[in-house]
Design brief:
four-stranded antiparallel beta sheet, flat, six-stranded antiparallel beta sheet, 10 strands, binds FE2/S2 (inorganic) cluster, 25% helix, 2 helices, alpha+beta, Rieske Iron-sulfur Protein, 143 residues
Length: 143
Protein backbone atom coordinates (compact mmCIF):
# COMPACT_ATOMS: atom_id res chain seq x y z
CA UNK A 1 0.00 0.00 0.00
CA UNK A 2 2.76 2.45 0.84
CA UNK A 3 4.36 1.94 -2.53
CA UNK A 4 1.23 3.28 -4.10
CA UNK A 5 1.73 6.51 -2.16
CA UNK A 6 5.32 6.83 -3.31
CA UNK A 7 4.67 9.38 -5.99
CA UNK A 8 6.97 11.20 -8.37
CA UNK A 9 7.65 13.99 -5.87
CA UNK A 10 8.76 11.48 -3.21
CA UNK A 11 10.90 9.70 -5.75
CA UNK A 12 12.64 12.97 -6.71
CA UNK A 13 13.12 13.96 -3.06
CA UNK A 14 14.70 10.60 -2.27
CA UNK A 15 16.87 10.75 -5.39
CA UNK A 16 18.16 14.24 -4.60
CA UNK A 17 18.92 13.27 -1.01
CA UNK A 18 20.82 10.21 -2.20
CA UNK A 19 22.78 12.24 -4.73
CA UNK A 20 23.57 14.94 -2.14
CA UNK A 21 24.79 12.42 0.44
CA UNK A 22 26.82 10.59 -2.20
CA UNK A 23 28.41 13.82 -3.39
CA UNK A 24 29.37 14.83 0.14
CA UNK A 25 30.82 11.35 0.79
CA UNK A 26 32.84 11.42 -2.43
CA UNK A 27 34.10 14.92 -1.66
CA UNK A 28 35.27 13.76 1.76
CA UNK A 29 37.11 10.85 0.15
CA UNK A 30 38.74 13.14 -2.42
CA UNK A 31 39.89 15.54 0.30
CA UNK A 32 41.32 12.63 2.27
CA UNK A 33 43.20 11.45 -0.83
CA UNK A 34 44.58 14.93 -1.48
CA UNK A 35 45.74 15.33 2.11
CA UNK A 36 47.32 11.88 2.07
CA UNK A 37 49.25 12.63 -1.10
CA UNK A 38 50.63 15.81 0.42
CA UNK A 39 52.00 14.07 3.46
CA UNK A 40 52.92 10.81 1.79
CA UNK A 41 56.61 10.08 1.83
CA UNK A 42 58.82 8.16 -0.49
CA UNK A 43 56.67 9.00 -3.47
CA UNK A 44 59.53 9.90 -5.78
CA UNK A 45 58.69 13.58 -5.67
CA UNK A 46 61.72 15.74 -6.17
CA UNK A 47 62.00 19.22 -4.76
CA UNK A 48 64.74 21.44 -6.16
CA UNK A 49 65.75 24.43 -4.11
CA UNK A 50 67.98 27.31 -5.10
CA UNK A 51 70.50 27.61 -2.28
CA UNK A 52 70.73 31.36 -2.86
CA UNK A 53 67.19 31.50 -1.42
CA UNK A 54 68.40 29.89 1.83
CA UNK A 55 71.34 31.95 3.12
CA UNK A 56 71.60 29.81 6.28
CA UNK A 57 72.64 26.89 4.08
CA UNK A 58 75.57 28.91 2.73
CA UNK A 59 77.95 27.62 5.38
CA UNK A 60 78.70 24.21 6.88
CA UNK A 61 76.51 23.62 9.94
CA UNK A 62 73.75 25.85 8.64
CA UNK A 63 70.19 24.63 8.45
CA UNK A 64 66.90 25.72 6.98
CA UNK A 65 63.33 24.52 6.94
CA UNK A 66 62.10 23.59 3.49
CA UNK A 67 58.35 23.55 3.53
CA UNK A 68 56.66 22.80 6.81
CA UNK A 69 58.18 19.46 7.77
CA UNK A 70 61.60 19.12 6.18
CA UNK A 71 64.84 20.45 7.54
CA UNK A 72 67.98 20.62 5.41
CA UNK A 73 71.35 20.75 7.14
CA UNK A 74 74.63 21.47 5.38
CA UNK A 75 77.12 18.94 6.72
CA UNK A 76 79.98 19.69 4.33
CA UNK A 77 81.00 21.86 1.41
CA UNK A 78 78.92 19.76 -0.93
CA UNK A 79 77.10 17.55 1.56
CA UNK A 80 73.59 18.03 2.85
CA UNK A 81 71.08 15.97 4.76
CA UNK A 82 67.33 16.39 4.65
CA UNK A 83 65.11 15.05 7.41
CA UNK A 84 61.43 15.04 8.15
CA UNK A 85 60.96 16.63 11.57
CA UNK A 86 58.00 14.42 12.49
CA UNK A 87 58.84 12.42 15.60
CA UNK A 88 58.51 8.72 14.92
CA UNK A 89 56.90 8.13 18.31
CA UNK A 90 53.59 9.98 18.07
CA UNK A 91 54.21 12.51 15.33
CA UNK A 92 55.03 15.71 17.21
CA UNK A 93 57.46 18.04 15.46
CA UNK A 94 60.98 17.66 16.82
CA UNK A 95 63.19 20.71 17.38
CA UNK A 96 66.72 21.11 16.03
CA UNK A 97 69.25 22.43 18.53
CA UNK A 98 72.22 22.75 16.20
CA UNK A 99 73.58 19.27 16.83
CA UNK A 100 70.54 17.03 17.26
CA UNK A 101 66.81 16.92 17.67
CA UNK A 102 64.56 16.77 20.70
CA UNK A 103 60.87 16.04 20.79
CA UNK A 104 58.94 18.38 23.09
CA UNK A 105 56.12 15.87 23.61
CA UNK A 106 57.75 12.89 25.34
CA UNK A 107 61.45 13.66 25.24
CA UNK A 108 62.79 11.46 22.45
CA UNK A 109 66.13 12.63 21.12
CA UNK A 110 67.86 12.10 17.80
CA UNK A 111 71.39 12.87 16.72
CA UNK A 112 72.19 15.29 13.91
CA UNK A 113 71.63 12.61 11.30
CA UNK A 114 68.19 11.74 12.66
CA UNK A 115 69.21 8.54 14.47
CA UNK A 116 67.34 7.86 17.71
CA UNK A 117 69.54 8.43 20.76
CA UNK A 118 66.82 8.25 23.41
CA UNK A 119 63.25 6.91 23.34
CA UNK A 120 60.39 6.41 23.57
CA UNK A 121 60.80 6.75 19.78
CA UNK A 122 62.26 3.61 18.28
CA UNK A 123 62.66 4.61 14.65
CA UNK A 124 65.01 7.20 13.20
CA UNK A 125 63.67 10.35 11.60
CA UNK A 126 62.71 9.90 7.98
CA UNK A 127 65.58 11.05 5.79
CA UNK A 128 65.58 12.05 2.14
CA UNK A 129 68.34 11.62 -0.41
CA UNK A 130 69.86 14.90 -1.51
CA UNK A 131 71.88 15.77 -4.59
CA UNK A 132 73.94 18.96 -4.72
CA UNK A 133 74.48 20.72 -8.01
CA UNK A 134 77.43 23.02 -7.54
CA UNK A 135 77.19 24.64 -10.98
CA UNK A 136 73.61 25.71 -10.36
CA UNK A 137 73.99 26.13 -6.59
CA UNK A 138 70.91 24.01 -6.14
CA UNK A 139 69.90 21.02 -4.08
CA UNK A 140 67.54 18.28 -5.17
CA UNK A 141 65.65 16.54 -2.38
CA UNK A 142 64.00 13.22 -3.18
CA UNK A 143 60.92 13.18 -0.98
S1 LIG B 1 55.87 12.24 19.98
FE1 LIG B 1 57.98 12.52 20.12
S2 LIG B 1 58.56 11.42 21.88
FE2 LIG B 1 56.44 11.11 21.72
Amino acid sequence: MEKANFNRRDFLKTSFKTIAVGTVALSALDIKKILASEIQEGTGIQKVINLADYPDLGSVGGSAMIGGKTIVIRTGGSKFIALNITCTHKKCDVEYNGSGFECPCHGSTYDGSGKVTNGPAKKNLKSYKTTYNEAENSLTINM
